[in-house]
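Two entries, shown back to back:
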Amino acid sequence: MSFWSDKRVLVTGGFGFLGSFVVEKLRERGCKNIFVPRSKDYDLVEIEAVKRLYRDAKPDIVIHLAARVGGIGANRANPGKFFYDNLMMGVQMMEVGRQVGLEKFVAVGTVCAYPKFTPVPFKEDDLWNGYPEETNAPYGLAKKMLLVQAQAYRQQYSFNAIYLLPVNLYGPRDNFDPDSSHVIPALIRKFIEAKTMVSGHQKSVKSDGASCLVPTSDSPPSVVVWGTGKATREFLYVEDCAEAIILATEKYNKPDPINIGAGFEISIKDLVDLIAKLTGFKGEIVWDASKPDGQPRRMLDTIRAEREFGFKAKIGFEEGLKKTIDWYLLTKEK
């Protein structure tokens, strides 16, 4: 608690999915001076906006979470924008922080920075052993450059920047927009919509990972899921990730990247079956193998995070999914 009591903390992306939980945890730890910029007031792609943000916030610590993100579909549709916006936001935030004598910069990267065929579990030392999976490589490489910058600035300027690599996140407040959502919120929304739509009405809604098709009244609803279901993923409950970021900010001051994950692996097929069960969906699940699977396997080695700052995920996967589904249903009722 005393670590945060006199710190001025700037959290970019603090109104977002992960950021909102990070801000809550900062307040729980007694941080009184938290500055959370809105994108409409500070376009971090523009250098003058970044300089103005530093002048207004006067931070001791920056936790940089702001990012242009989306699932497979959004990455395929916007590779240039995802590369440029994420690169410029991160590079400029760190550079201006160095110029003003910032105490610490926490760069939050992405599991998409890992090579496509990284051996499982992904170890931090494997980060440079190949090219990322093609559909999200522009985004992953843009975020990966923050690690290069952090290490270069530490070497030349003794600038205290750390780099964290979270796995795929999920939980309440996630993005359920069908045009840009990741696989878990996409599936939750599609199963619930397919289950609750009035029979006899036909609708097709596309999103990353799943599209919902409701046929005629004489056949049950079905959900079409992208890919083959063979790919595997690891998922971390958003509140666990926020805790990891806070712990790393408090305790970690080294150049090496750190994985942030839950340390388990689940196939997309098993994930789909589990979400169908938890949402009560009993219709048909159709696999569209013409759509990409993305990275073949994904699971992080989390030993370094536990050793360096004592982080270990607490929320079980099924428990976290139930919390996410309950939150989504609650928001639909409002």
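entry 2 starts here
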Amino acid sequence: MFKLKEHNTTISQEFLAGFTTFLTMMYIVPVNGYILSQAGMPIGAVITATALITIFATIFNGLWSNTPIAMSVGMGLNAYFTYGLVLGMKIPWQTALGIVFISGIIFVILSFTKFRVWVINSIPMDLRRSISAGIGAFIAFIGLKEMHIIVPNKATLVTLGNLSDPHVLIGVFGIILALILYAYRIKGAFILSVLISSIIAYSFIPNMHFSNEFFSMPKSIAPIALKLDIKSALTLSLLPVIVTFLITDMFDTIGTLSAVGARANLFQDENKKDETLEKTLEADAIATVAGSLMGVSTTTSFIESASGVEAGGRTGLTAVFTGLFFILTLFMLPLFKSIPQAAILPILVAVGVLMFMELGRINFEKIDIATATAAFFSIILMPLTYSITNGLAAAFVTYTIIKLAQGKFKDLNIGVVTIAIISLIVFIVHG
């Protein structure tokens, strides 16, 4: 079924690769649980739902596409879900889940048509990279703010926080530790960083009490499952948000599959129909719809899958093993709830740094003023306006206007112009 001999791999090699991927992305369960709980969703139900969608999506992809790609709730859009929509725009989390569902349905439809490829190819690569960097800056800013490393200031809007506060110091330590462990390519760098930071926090910060329990039966997902409000999400004012979730999910997936595929020799032939790529995109889209029904934000392919590929994973059996290992996280709620906030939030910053590195792939020596302006506004406005939508909209609008002013009509296509027009709705609604 997995064609192990054809891919020059073995069951034991795929097993090791699956365990490696599991270690590197296990952090998503407690981190996503914390982020979505800030939107008013019960943390126990969110943790169970996060584990379940990871298990389902990853195993489904392994069986459907036979690729070593693991899937779970995407970092970036989960932060936007909570801090941008629910806390920022005061949208109920039920409506936000409706937005995720609608964007997922559109993604599923596009995944079975050539329109998906047309949309992706119509947007300049450098613009896609700047959007990724902007999302990285956005979620890093959220992490720094929530750890009080950055605090409000009447004179300058924001300033540096109190570095003598032990909670802040734990956060700073966690950021540095996570990035150092990642730099040394240590397997499970992020979850190891959370563990070490938690131990230090409990050792040096007074009035912190560790739970005596480590494992328990999973909490029910009933409080969040099937609670999405699709009707409230189907409004003109939320159309730009739906487009933002759709485009970001597509970019996340394509970027991840390109990076992981380069290491596993997958998805490399752009001149012919690639069935494995199409099936992986279909699995990703279906997982987003399933995740919204379970009660979590957008599900996407995880770049941490590259760690499993580096360990020798070449087929969907790696993904199946990864999904099976995630069953363990269903019973770890007491342990996850015991993790201090100061140990979890540094992972947001670390992931933000990794996403921001995408900016380094832009050739600034040959970049034109329209692309440079669009890149600048996407990166600067996402964190400053606390909205991926605003940054995305400003990027497409400025890019289109400058190209039109220069008379470079050949650089524009229906895809870019359509997104630019939709993006104008963002500012019209705000106005």
